């Protein structure tokens, strides 16, 4: 897809790769049933990629992230993978883009979820849970309006997940400051030379929020870490990357994990026109979940006091800047937009390297 959006900064290409096909037989297969992998968001100087891998990390046990699950989404001739987080015994949160290939017409039977294991959800010996329905945040569109491509989705499971398999996590409601030590985890690729290969086991890294000027220069929709998007700067070559989308960004308070955000994207080094995604100086971006808590409460019917860690000092103001009372569930398959952007679908890969990756390009005017 090709999208145009007005902006005063220089043009650059940004790739999102949440739905890279796992084993396409040809270029045609790579686009069949999965026209959108994720998004190309444009900003001033560097490439930005959605969906990420943990590189430079260390092995993690699911006991450290007992609310974390793997989501496998089947398209007509490809398969997507995202992480998701359990927020009640029947609901989990992830990114909207994980279900999108031009429309939200995935059936619940196309989606399976695994919990309680370090192993990714593509392993055949892992128990899976059925999905009753999924809800994409209203008005999601990859066409570049505001920060829509970072928005979340909820999965309603067909049956409760037993506490001895997975336990829900509460959402952090306090301020996000640069001195915080946060942890993120995922099953994404573990090194640059492994391409888009999914890690069989879970990995983790520690990161801190950043208020660097590059956070906005590289992604114009970042407005500060208490807004809808959280920014971190890559140090020691430790970064998220391919297929880590939907993974947790957590703050540990007195031994309790609190969910701050969801893994969304990564740039190339912000102080250079060269370099690989995830190298030192790159930026990682996360969707800030507290900004969606009103919508989550409305869809799930769960009181905010149960969803939130109420012991944290609250952010000033209401959490309604991206919230809506009208959920778009899986029975609503058409994404409408009042935007005047030009939209055209790509029909072939851009380069041989990206044969397995359907692309969506956002060009700035």
TrEMBL record:
Biological process per Gene Ontology, one example term: proteolysis
Pfam families membership: Trypsin
Species this protein is from: Zancudomyces culisetae (Gut fungus)
N-terminal signal peptide: 1-27
Region described as Disordered: spans on this chain: 316-338
SUPFAM superfamilies: Trypsin-like serine proteases
Ranges annotated as biased composition (Polar residues): 317-329
Xref: Gene3D superfamilies: Trypsin-like serine proteases
Key words, A-Z: Signal
MF GO annotations: serine-type endopeptidase activity
Domain Peptidase S1 residue range list: 54-301
PANTHER family assigned: IP10340P-RELATED, PTHR24260
Protein name: Cathepsin G
Keyword Signal found: yes
Alphabetical list of InterPro entries matching this protein: CLIP_Serine_Protease (IPR051333), Peptidase_S1_PA (IPR009003), Peptidase_S1_PA_chymotrypsin (IPR043504), Trypsin_dom (IPR001254)
Cross-referenced PROSITE patterns: TRYPSIN_DOM
CDD domains xrefs: Tryp_SPc (cd00190)
Keyword Signal part of the UniProt annotation: yes
């Amino acid at each position: 897809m090709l999208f145009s959006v007005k902006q005063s900064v220089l043009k650059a290409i940004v790739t999102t790769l949440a739905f890279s096909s796992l084993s396409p037989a040809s270029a045609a297969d790579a686009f069949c049933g999965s026209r959108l992998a994720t998004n190309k968001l444009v900003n001033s100087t560097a490439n930005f990629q959605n969906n990420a891998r943990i590189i430079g990390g260390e092995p993690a046990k699911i006991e450290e992230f007992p609310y974390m699950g793997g989501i496998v989404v089947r398209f007509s001739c490809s398969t997507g993978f995202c992480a998701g987080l359990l927020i009640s015994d029947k609901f989990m949160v992830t990114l909207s883009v994980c279900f999108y290939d031009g429309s939200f017409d995935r059936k619940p039977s196309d989606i399976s979820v695994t919990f309680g294991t370090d192993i990714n959800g593509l392993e055949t010996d892992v128990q899976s849970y059925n999905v009753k329905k999924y809800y994409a945040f209203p008005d999601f569109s990859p066409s570049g309006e505001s920060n829509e491509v970072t928005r979340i989705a909820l999965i309603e499971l067909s049956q409760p997940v037993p506490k001895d398999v997975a336990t829900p996590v509460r959402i952090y409601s306090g301020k996000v400051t640069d001195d915080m030590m946060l942890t993120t985890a995922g099953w994404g690729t573990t090194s640059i030379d492994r391409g888009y290969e999914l890690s069989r086991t879970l990995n983790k890294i520690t990161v801190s929020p950043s208020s660097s000027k590059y956070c906005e220069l590289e992604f114009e929709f970042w407005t500060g870490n208490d807004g809808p998007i959280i920014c971190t700067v890559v140090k020691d070559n430790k970064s998220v990357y391919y297929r880590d989308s939907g993974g947790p960004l957590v703050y540990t308070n007195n031994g309790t994990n609190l969910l701050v955000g969801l893994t969304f994207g990564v740039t190339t080094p912000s102080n250079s026109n060269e370099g690989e995604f995830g190298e030192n100086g790159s930026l990682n971006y996360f969707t800030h979940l507290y900004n969606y808590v009103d919508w989550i409460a409305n869809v799930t019917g769960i009181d905010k006091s149960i969803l939130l860690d109420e012991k944290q000092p609250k952010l000033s103001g209401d959490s309604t800047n991206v919230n809506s009372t009208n959920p778009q569930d899986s029975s609503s398959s058409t994404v409408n937009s009042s935007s005047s952007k030009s939209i055209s679908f790509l029909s072939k890969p851009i380069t041989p390297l990206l044969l397995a990756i359907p692309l969506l390009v956002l060009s700035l005017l």
